[in-house]
Protein 1
Amino acid sequence: MGASQSTESNLTASIQRHLSKIVVAPSFAASLFFVYGFILWTGYMAFSKSRMLPVWDWAGLRQYERLWQMERWHVAIENLLVFGGLFIVTCLIIGCLLAVLLDQRIRAEGVLRTIFLYPMALSFIVTGTVWKWLLNPGLGLESMMHDLGWTSFKFDWLVNSDMAIYTVVIAAVWQASGFVMAMFLAALRGVDQDIIRAAYMDGASLPRIYFGIIIPSIRPVFLSAIVVLAHLAVKSFDLVIALTGGGPGYASDLPATFMYTMAFQRNQLGIGAASAMMMLATVMAIIVPYLYSELRGGKKNG
Amino acid sequence: MADLQTYSHDAGWKNTVLRGLLYLVLILFAAYYLFPLIVMVSTSLKSLDEIREGSLISLPRVVTFDAWNYAWNEACVGVECTGIKIYFWNSVKMAIPAVLISTFLGAINGYALTKWRFKGANIVFALLLFGCFIPFQVVLLPMSQVLGKLGLASSTPGLVMVHVVYGLCFTTLFFRNYYVSIPDELVKAATIDGAGFFTIFWRIILPISTPIIVVSVIWQFTQIWNDFLFGASFASGENAPMTVALNNIVNTTTGVKQYNVDMAAALLTGLPTLLVYVLAGKYFVRGLTAGSVKG
């Protein structure tokens, strides 16, 4: 009787000691399986002969070869470069400009900030739906300009295969630029006031204060913003689906929509898996160096 | 903050002109951000005839809620013409459990990883964190097979599981960073008084976690409500979440294109997250910066 009681209390004590590990274990196991396991699984699939159904027969690099021979994949990659580049640069310019303008002791700053940022709360599907309506050549902006008297105005980017990807840029910038503004504004508020005052006393003009002192001192925020926006660009899927559906044809396909089409509509599981691995590699190439530098230098902010 | 008023060497009138210009630019930008929302609302309140005749910017002559009613009760998603309401409830049934479970797990993980550090706790955290960054395309194919094997394909519980699993890294990140700044002495003192792991969590840690719980709940709710990729991949037909239903309504090719219904459905889809944003904007921004600067 006494012996069993003592083993029991030993057990409770040992559970108490390991409780922390026990509590984290399920999440950790889920992460090992659903993140790392699934990446390996997809990675293996990309080396298999899978088409309509997943099979385990080894095919070597065959799926990657087929992927890189597809014109559609090249279109998707080019679109990602065009979209990502324009999206990142435009968001940075608008976001930085708005933050500087808002940082001038503006009346009703709170209201303006709320207005600039609200698109970020919406689903990309909602954004895509409304911009699709605004940009449709029949009844949207084009006809509005005609009614206003500008009859030669033509805006058919949504149905023009050369221009469709730019409509995605327009809608994405509308959605995300306010967020960049919020990041920059927070950084501007953190700049040391004494340095600014000293520069002013020395006779520096406001533009010089901005370009010479403030913007260089918030350089890390530029880096963070670029990483966040690049990450958003590579993952972009919903917006393209809702706005252009990847069309006309596959003119505005991005890797994310390409992968989805191959995997769920074209019965090309192997190619879908191979394109997903390419996407993962792209994101890792952006994120890993960034995280490394953040974690190494980030000790100070926990 | 470096503003024109405090830091200017110029004469007064020049500053007044500049400030006028400043407000003009800001108001123009505000108009640019508001324009789609205004058009969306005004289009949803017009009749189809008025849309065809009138201009994009003209306000409705006759305000009618027919399109809202039709979108909610009758609009066709695929072949089912039940309106968007059943998909709205699908999203609610998916979002609430997924938000609560992932937030709770994030809280207890963050607590364990900071206040009861074990050997390798940092490595465990780093490995968990990695999940925030992967493009989800890389898990879609295995996940659809696993959901099929579990009998959860095309079901709301399946989506809840997916959102919990991939939301965990964010919620753990939020709570871990929050608890790092809470002094360890608080926990140590309670341990000396004989309180255990869970007692301290419930009695001491949770009561001071309100701000970060709000941030986590808002972040997760926005992410899950707005999700389209998982919804489109793992739930079809009558179990689809609202974003998928909206996309189906808008992109259906049969019948007359009802722009007012599209806009009403889009507004209905956007309203819950917009409401959260307006009511708790401060926490929303905190979640965005915490979740995105590091994730």
Note: The longest helix of chain B spans residues 12-44.
Protein 2
Amino acid sequence: MAQRKIRNSSSVGTTTSRVTLNPKVARRSFLKLSAATAALTTAAMTTRMTAKAASPAAVKKAYPDSKMVRSVCTHCAVGCGINAEVQNGVWVRQEVAQDHPVSRGGYCCKGASAIDMVTSEKRLKHPMKRVNGKWQKLSWDTAMDEIAAKMTAIRDNDGPDALHLNGSAKVSTEMAYLQRKFAAFWGSNNVDHQARI
Amino acid sequence: MAGVANTWGYGAMTNSLNDMRHAQAMIFIGSNAAEAHPVSMQHILHAKEVNNAPIIVVDPRFTKLAAKADEFVRIRPGTDCIFIMGLVNEIIQKGWEDKEFIRTRVAGFPEMAASCSQYSPEEVENVTGIPAAQTRKVAKILATNRPASLTWCMGGTQHHIGSSITRAFCILQLVLGNMGKSGGGTNIFRGHDNVQGATDMCVLSHTLPGYYGLKDGSWKHWCRVWDVEYDYIVSRFKEKKWMNAKGFTLARWYEGVLGEEKIEQYTPIKAMIQWGCGSNSNSQYDRVVRAYNKLDLFVIIDPFPTMAAATCTSDNVYLLPCSSQYETSGSVTSTSRQIQWRHKIVEPINGCRDDYSIMEELVKRLGFADKFYKNIKEVPEDITREINRGTLTIGYNGQTPERIKKHMENWHTFDIETLQAKGGPCDGDYFGMPWPCWTEEHPGTPILYDVSKPVAEGGLPFRNRFGMEHTYEMSGRTENQLAAEGVYNPGSEVKGGYPEFKDVVPGTNWKTDLSQKTLKEAVRRGMAPFGNARARCVVWTFPDQIPIHREPLHSPRPDLITRYPTYEDKPNHFRVFTRYKSEQSPDLAGKFPFVLTTGRMVEHMGGGAETRSNKYLSELQPEMYAEVNPRTGHNLGLRDGEMIWIESPEGGKVKVKAFFTERVDEHTIFMPYHFGGVLMGESLAGNYPAGHAPYVSGEPANVCTNYGYDIVTQIQATKDGLCKISRA
């Protein structure tokens, strides 16, 4: 039953040549796909399914002048490959990475919806601060000036250990390194991240 | 990871996800890979189907992974240590231990065997609820199907004895002789995508990058790498002694703000920067919220407003929109220690900026940009190069940006079974050059502590990290800590144990020789730079030198507290007083009769700020709930689907929908911890910037997770607290 569901739903994805052009279709096919996947409990797509999704026919119909960028899913530590199709600086379609040695075209529903990390309407657009309890927009320069001035004042009055930096396991290794290096140059060991918990 | 690192040298997954295809058996404890690491399942199920490898799942819940198990072992939360040590005891009693492996590569075995002999299968049953016959059966499965892979996640670590539990896991694998072998290993699945990378870079309050620690020598090493005067860094601290003192952790930083516990620091914490950190993964979250509102300055840097933005209503808070990782580039280290390059897909959208630019803007304004960026011109590649130069301890030096990118371009050339490239530009390399990767020619180390391969081809012995010999307190026996004669990697000049390399360049060792001559010299001689030692069953620097059971801080079994008490209170635990003995009370279980445990679901991630703002995932999993056994529910007069209050001993409470299911037993309540946007029954939707509240909101489970922290690492004990429930 679940197998059939998956075969049917994956064919929706492949017969629609440019799934993201029509958000309604893209969304529907995605949801079918992931609902069936979730029902499978392992949530990993089967090779058969991904083979269909990334069939040569589908890949051939690339967006004009688009390029394919290889990247890595940002959710869990499995490190699944992502093939991102980019046209004119816009991420137009996400392809499975069938030849990735670890994920082999597999995605869970989070990986399959990775593109929404960039397209979500919920993404913040401006620096903001609360003024009298209400959010107020401000420019990057103003925000950074204010933050740096306040940090400096706190450091001068209370010492560097009055700051705590919660860094991240969601940034690149290079950025994580800078976070730790920042704490060292700031003058405190009050720095930590999610791996602690 | 402290428990693991203190056993054999490094705290990381020893094998790889692909290598699990070679397992002859697999045991998962405190891991729900089917939901938390779904794509790993293809390798796991391959071993199950092709090798006929039995899957054993030990969990308080019948999880989606348990649905794939040959043997499901339901365990009472927080009793992992006694179960595992009970297995070890059963294996030894039956004579199934790998005697040759233990004789040549393990230290402290007799002492450990004497200690775990107290844990008979019957005593294990009394404490864990696992039938004695099942413990015996699992021991037999593991003994007759070698090598077995052992996997754990937060279910194994988030306990006040987490650092003992992780060592028990390691000991089990040592006793079975499953270490350093394809198909075996301790395969600790990391959570977030870059937990391994960020941990290696030590965004941690007790060590500098590469696990160098906080000693003077550690600081001097990194000052050489950064090319700054050591005295300059000293001058940045309040006093030199604070350089060597572990800082507040993510688990308890807020105690530095609230002033309700005794802290060991000259000032309270007044400013907080949360950079890519979903705050609602903190236990006692309602107290965290109070701390937010007491700060003088609170800066949140994230692509989405985290729940912190909604709970902090004071005028102290700034929100900086950073780009997602798809809008920047850099490396990321998977749970298998593979380093991949995440190429930038698009430029930062809207008005966002990438992490590197935000850091640069901040550092410039704080006035130390010239020193901070001395070696860094090209971002992020020059940062990778600086990491390569300094992080010698874990062999992060051979993975240059050029090599990492080459692996990405040629990922299709790597073999699925071995992860080694067959031909092509990366011929012979292992995918992602899993660390240690000692030189720019080294292929990476696919399996840690594997003595069957030459060091130059990815082999390694156990690390010599804990001295040459030790006299055990409990037995008076003195033991050489180096490996026995005959244990060595092919081609090694020394045919047995040897200490770590030093003075190849006078005055330096393999970790501090920035010329890297020492590393090259060791590899040339077929030897591991870090020596060839034994893995330890006894960690003499830990409060429990050999893992023993201690009842959860908030135990549902008052009758066991006397026999298995917690630790003495610890006055300065990462700068804050931490209660153990004074917190454990036999009276608590009467008032809070259910065990509360938490976990993941496949549709969401971490605190959920990203996934609950994703329209697809939100539609798939739109509602917070608590799993309640139908029998429990009916006895309390509740109905399936009804709203209930769950309340912790600390007074945190959440209003959630009861989901009747036999996934949990009658004594246990389970909640997923990804939800946010509601606090103690009140919606905070109006507190987000207009239009930016996530699609899905719900009570954060961590409002109810209890007080309790690991004695070594201070990881929070979210898996074995107590609670009570009532109709809302």
Note: The radius of gyration of chain B is 25 Å.
